[in-house]
From TrEMBL:
PANTHER family: ALPHA-DIOXYGENASE 1, PROSTAGLANDIN G/H SYNTHASE
Name recorded for this polypeptide: Animal haem peroxidase
Pfam family, one: An_peroxidase
Keywords: Dioxygenase, Fatty acid biosynthesis, Fatty acid metabolism, Heme, Iron, Lipid biosynthesis, Lipid metabolism, Metal-binding, Oxidoreductase, Oxylipin biosynthesis, Peroxidase, Plant defense
Heme found in the keyword field: yes
Originating organism: Nonomuraea solani
GO biological process: defense response; fatty acid biosynthetic process; oxylipin biosynthetic process; response to oxidative stress
Top-level taxon: Bacteria
Region ranges (Disordered): 1-29
Keyword Hydrolase: no
GO MF terms, alphabetically ordered: heme binding; metal ion binding; oxidoreductase activity, acting on single donors with incorporation of molecular oxygen, incorporation of two atoms of oxygen; peroxidase activity
Cofactor or coenzyme needed: Ca(2+)
């Protein structure tokens, strides 16, 4: 006690070396990174608590998980540090005599807005405003220790108590559910702490002492716990009046009408992990052993709280998100509970403010889903999903998707491991709530950089990084034996527009940025006796060389798989049309800030290199020109309609609304037209249509979905965003399965749509690069669409890779794109084919015959690969025998069913903000009524008689009869 009295008298202790963090902090799971993943799951559990409180309390919206009912909210308090502040505590904003404005919120601790007389803890939240860019949030409760030692106990307790608003429910939760969840001894200790703090009579929140419970760093002084205690001489409060549910608010109102309310801010210094544990929130730091040092005075000035201004201030404060991590690194929160609070507070606050969402499945879906997984797991050993009756196959596919969502979404984002302090996040610009940003930021308002330009590709499968196998077997040999096209193999159910479309889409979704040629290269050794010319006019060499992808990992991380940034945004936002950043987007618009895209007589404006100026201009050929021209015209048509319908809408709003409409229309076309065209079965048609607009209206389907996946009863655009447990991104595995270059033909015939007469016969090199736009303007959009509509693309299979792409000049390099695709996949640590399919819950191959029955393919596979485990992923995907009428195999389809719905489900503008208030009623109607056929006919009405009558525009068109072949019948 003598030591305590010395400190309380204001004598500073001898300066000492602060303890190292590793001496008092221990991470759950052993590492900060592992702990972060665990705490993210706990944060989602707390969001479920919020939903349960809302449901049981029949509240109009989502409230705080804790401290829901505010008692006081003022923003004119002051915090003044003592002039005799001990030397070792002088750090950062804590300086002798320094004074700062403070926002104060006092509250009840429950997540339910119950009467003040109900047993409860009370809380204090302070926001110390040091300057425009520096604040410190201090959060406290009127009991010295937490009921929970760690984050897991804290969350389980919250789950058990959620919505327990009556005494009976509280008793059941505390004495039955809590022991079941955490064990009898832990539950007993937690009950003691909670009841000790909540059953005590509270007469005034001005007379309570509030403890931080957890510790914070206090600069060089090391860890401290802090508390707020009433200053001496505060007048007593009368007993609580019966029948007044808000007596604590009324008492403070009356008290502040007469006098200031004053508290002392005090700290206790860390001694050692035994006496003053940082990681155990349920352990007290005893006053008799750990001195309590007053450091500052908090003053809430006398004021009238019964005014409109005071009530508006209180309401404004009630919407603030207090977070102990709103601070600086010198005052970083410490300990398990505080680190968990970072994830929990951010998630709970975002959930409450409608920035983050959670849609937990009903219990029946969990039970039925488990039964279906078990049942289909057995059935699939004998009958694959695509051979089942349609309704049963749909349930099987839905079950597979649930398993993939659970097991095959891996977060690769380079987020911080140990959490870092940060300033209070600035208010969200109102414009980003209603417009897609140029670079994909703020799609998820709670995580603004998620999916944005420059964010990394995720993973569906754990990477397999084998530098020793980068060149084994030699990728050039693999290409020549298994990929090289000798005879064109057509996909007769499709037209070449389908090939152009998927490249058009991929350019919106993914773009691995390459290092400048010559700065960092990949070198592939060539088979004996072979040479390669790596640049135009270059000498033959014994290696094939091309530019490496840029790597996000720091230098020295050569032992790790490549982590690549996406040079496009991951969202379905039309960036291939509009550009991926603000400068490009604005350069594509009409001069003077007009909403329309710049066209010259209906065509894209060429750049200095002859390639049109558009959102994505690499790998340019006639197929891309057709799609970009068509949708630039569509954007301008939407702009005209918006101007006519809403004359008061300014050009900036017209542009952004039109972009929303066209991007959503593109997503719809891909979902309900292109995909069912390439996967032409009734099951896929029903499933993909259901993704967009809900399932068929029959009782059996609705019953099945009600039991198995009630969220599928409506189309995804009628649901809330859901990232399914991992931040949204497209993945390296997704990129791998969309390597569909065999779709590209080597030869093209441009024909007249009126007569069918051939106009030009061209090779691929004649329809690409700078040669594209002169051809486009000679032929015209209608003839180009028609010529692609009547021609077949290549089948996605072995030995069908376009010859023109196997000696392809790009950025001064001459590359074999088939070799590049193989090498990129290996170097990005995408698992080889057998591991790839096993990771997607398919049986492993035991022999080559399990992959294909084609004798030529079998012989070549056995000649190139030593075992089935060595087969390249792309080769295996091309070699699979696909389900009937499928354009690709079941392994690629599994990535597709996982990621296709994810691209919609994660996107705010295709879920919660897919509504007339954002898109306008005209925009919503435009998306609903239109598809690829109507877009084509709007800009080329002369093609009406040639488009398919009962199929999508990606199915073969009716050819016009050439004049020379028409004749008159004679007797």
């Amino acid at each position: 006690m003598a030591k305590q009295q010395e400190h309380l008298a204001g004598e500073p202790p001898a300066l000492r070396e602060p303890p190292a963090p590793e001496s008092y902090e221990r991470y759950v799971g052993g590492t900060p990174e592992r702990e972060r993943v665990i705490f993210e799951k706990l944060a989602r559990d707390l969001m479920r608590v919020q939903l349960k409180i809302k449901e049981r309390g029949r509240a109009p919206g989502i409230d705080r998980a804790f401290h829901a009912k505010a008692i006081l909210g003022v923003e004119n308090a002051t915090l003044r540090f003592h002039t005799a502040l001990p030397e070792d505590l002088r750090t950062g904003f804590a300086q002798p005599g320094a004074e700062y404005p403070v926002i104060v919120r006092l509250s009840n601790a429950s997540g339910t807005r119950q009467p003040d007389l109900a047993p409860d803890l009370r809380g204090a939240a302070l926001r110390v405003q040091v300057g425009p860019d520096e604040t410190h949030d201090l959060l406290m409760t009127n009991h010295p220790v937490s009921h929970a030692r760690n984050a897991r106990e804290f969350v389980v307790f919250a789950q058990v108590m959620a919505g327990a608003s009556t005494n009976v429910r509280k008793a059941v939760a505390l004495y039955a559910r809590l022991p079941w969840a955490l064990g009898w001894s832990t539950a007993a200790r937690m009950r003691r702490n909670v009841l000790a703090g909540s059953r005590r009579e509270v007469r005034s929140l001005a007379l309570e002492t509030y403890w931080s419970r957890g510790a914070i760093l206090w600069g060089a002084a090391g860890p401290v716990r802090y508390r707020l205690r009433p200053a001496s001489g505060a007048p007593a409060a009368p007993p609580p009046p019966s029948g007044d549910d808000d007596y604590l608010s009324h008492e403070l109102e009356a008290r502040l009408a007469r006098q200031d309310v004053v508290f002392d801010l005090c700290v206790q210094r860390f001694e050692d992990v035994r006496l003053t544990p940082v990681e155990n929130g349920a352990a007290d730091w005893p006053d008799e052993d750990v001195p309590v040092v007053p450091v500052a005075t908090l003053t809430i000035p006398r004021q009238n709280l019964d005014t409109a201004e005071a009530r508006a201030t209180a309401a404004r404060i009630d919407h603030l998100a207090f977070d102990p991590w709103n601070t600086t690194g010198e005052f970083r929160p410490l300990g398990n509970l505080n680190r968990a609070r970072k994830a929990a507070y951010e998630a709970g606050s975002a959930h409450r403010r409608g920035l983050r969402f959670l849609t937990p499945p009903p219990e029946r879906n969990l039970v039925v889903g488990a039964l279906l997984r078990a049942g289909f797991g057995v059935l699939s050993r004998f009958v694959p999903w695509h051979r089942l009756p349609t309704w049963l196959g749909l349930l099987n596919v839905a079950t597979i998707r649930q398993v993939l969502r659970r097991d095959n979404l891996i977060d690769t984002d380079a987020e911080q491991g140990p959490p870092a302090a940060h300033p209070v996040p600035p208010p969200i610009d109102e414009h980003v709530r209603v417009r897609r940003t140029y670079d994909g930021t703020f799609n998820d308002l709670s995580a603004p950089t998620m999916g944005a330009l420059g964010s990394p590709f995720g993973r569906n499968l754990a990477p397999v990084h084998r530098p020793d196998l980068f060149d084994e077997p030699n990728p050039v040999v693999v290409s020549r034996e298994l990929l090289h096209r000798e005879t064109f193999i057509p996909a007769r159910s499709l037209n070449v527009l389908a090939a152009a479309w998927i490249q058009f889409q991929v350019h919106d979704w993914v773009d691995h940025k390459r290092c400048p040629p010559g700065t960092k290269n990949v070198e592939v050794p060539l088979p004996h006796g072979m040479t390669w010319v790596n640049s135009s006019g270059g000498a033959p060499e014994r290696v094939m060389r091309f530019a490496e992808n840029e790597d996000l990992r720091p230098a020295g991380g050569a032992g790790s798989p490549i982590l690549s940034a996406n040079a496009a945004s991951h969202w379905w936002d039309g960036s291939e049309v509009y550009g991926g950043d603000e400068s490009v987007a604005k350069s594509l618009r009409e001069p003077g800030g007009g909403a329309s895209l710049r066209l010259e007589d209906g065509h894209l404006a060429p750049g200095p290199d002859g390639i049109p100026i558009t959102g994505f201009r690499e790998n340019w050929w006639l197929g891309l020109s057709v799609m970009h021209t068509l949708f630039a015209r569509e954007h301008n048509a939407v702009c005209r309609a918006l101007r006519d319908e809403y004359p008061g809408m300014d050009e900036e709003s017209v542009y952004h609304t039109a972009r929303l409409v066209v991007s959503a229309l593109i997503a719809k076309i891909h979902t309900v037209e292109w995909t069912p065209a390439i996967l032409a079965t009734e099951l896929i048609d029903i499933g993909l249509t259901a993704n967009w607009q809900g399932p068929p209206k029959n009782w059996l389907t609705h019953l099945g979905l009600w039991l198995a996946d009630t969220h599928a009863l409506t189309g995804i655009p009628r649901t809330l965003p859901d990232h399914h447990g991992a931040p949204y991104s497209l993945t390296e595995d997704f990129v791998t399965v969309y390597r569909m270059h065999p779709l590209i033909p080597d030869d093209y015939e441009i024909a007249d749509h009126r007569s069918g007469r051939p106009l030009e016969s061209l090779g691929f090199n004649d329809v690409r690069g700078a040669a594209t736009e002169p051809l486009m303007r000679r032929a015209g959009l209608a003839n180009s669409l028609y010529s692609f509509g009547i021609a077949h693309p290549g089948a996605i299979t072995l030995r069908n890779f376009p010859r023109a792409l196997q000696a392809f000049e790009r950025d001064g390099e001459i590359i074999d794109l088939s070799v590049v695709d193989l090498v990129r996949t290996r170097r990005r640590a995408v698992p080889r084919y057998n591991d790839f399919r096993a990771g997607l819950h398919k049986p492993r191959l035991r022999r080559f015959e399990d992959l294909t029955s084609d004798p030529d393919a079998l012989a070549r596979l056995k000649d190139v690969y030593r075992s089935v485990d060595d087969i390249d992923t792309m080769v295996g995907l091309f070699a699979e025998n696909p389900p009937e009428n499928f354009g690709f195999g079941d392994t690629a389809f599994r990535i597709f069913i996982l990621m296709a719905s994810r691209r919609l489900q994660s996107d705010r503008f295709l879920t919660v903000d897919f509504r007339p208030e954002i898109y306008t009623p005209l925009g919503m109607d435009w998306i609903d009524r239109n598809g690829m056929t109507s877009v084509t006919l709007r800009h080329c009405p002369e093609l009406a008689s040639l488009l398919p009558r009962t199929a999508s525009a990606f199915a073969p068109w009716r050819p016009a009869m050439p004049e020379a072949n028409t004749g008159v019948m004679h007797d």
